[in-house]
Write a structure and sequence with these properties.
2 copies of one chain form a homodimer. Chain A is mainly beta and 127 residues long. Helices cover 11% and strands 36% of the residues of chain A. Chain A has 2 helices and 8 strands, in the order E-E-H-E-E-E-E-E-E-H. In chain A, the strands form 3 sheets. In chain A, strands 2-1-6-5 form a 4-stranded mixed beta sheet, with helices on one face. The radius of gyration of chain A is 15 Å and the shape is globular. In chain A, 38% of the residues are buried. At the A-B interface, strand 1, strand 2, strand 5 and strand 7 of A face strand 1, strand 2, strand 5 and strand 7 of B.
């Protein structure tokens, strides 16, 4: 029995993963891992997710260079979730070029973009 | 069209919700909301989730008193997730009596309890 066996994998064999910047405390992304992704994340020390849309392992930063170096891995009590503390290389976690995916906030009943695009996505993914 | 229509509800009509302590930045819980829960959260200014196990609205703190006063609501780019910034009444978010659900961390291949129980759950739910 390994730590992988203690994760409550859901009906799709996935677990939700919250990724937080270890320095600023900002929540960067919510993504998913399967067993292989979590094993590889721990082994490499870099975040590896499962892309539900592409249906394959997603080594964060493999195209953008925006790797997430893992500082800590936590498991929650029962809600099927993992929390990563990371160092975000390049300072950009989101494919939109924002620092993080949570750049919209609710104001007076509307979602308002509250954080800037730091880099044009066309420049991030030009490889 | 309201802000509720812009949330990418999943196949179960739910969205994942990450809840963070606005003062400490600690990620407290990961839970789920349906449309009604999000509408009520925004209206009341207190976190209301959807309990997948009990299949009903779960007004956080209704039994424990550990209400979460909502300071900010954010939506992510596409990963089906909401981020709440809250003030955690009572300083305890987890039903286990820990400050938060993420009290276990990975150390040398094992999940280790890294934060204390602040209050006996039997005392929290004695009503």
């Amino acid at each position: 029995m390994t730590f992988l066996d203690e994760v409550p994998w859901n009906e799709h064999d996935l677990v939700a993963v919250v990724t937080q910047d270890h320095a600023t405390g900002k929540v960067l992304t919510v993504a998913w891992m399967n067993r292989e992704a979590l094993a590889e994340t721990v082994k490499r020390g870099e975040a590896v997710y499962w892309s539900r849309s592409r249906k394959k392992l997603w080594r964060k930063g493999e195209e953008s260079g925006h790797v997430q170096n893992v500082r800590e891995v936590r498991l929650d009590c029962d809600a099927d979730a993992i929390l990563l503390q990371v160092e975000q290389v390049g300072g950009i976690a989101c494919h939109t070029g924002h620092e993080r995916c949570f750049f919209r906030k609710l104001e007076d009943g509307r979602w308002v973009e509250a954080e800037p695009v730091l880099k044009d996505p066309a420049l991030i993914y030009r490889k």
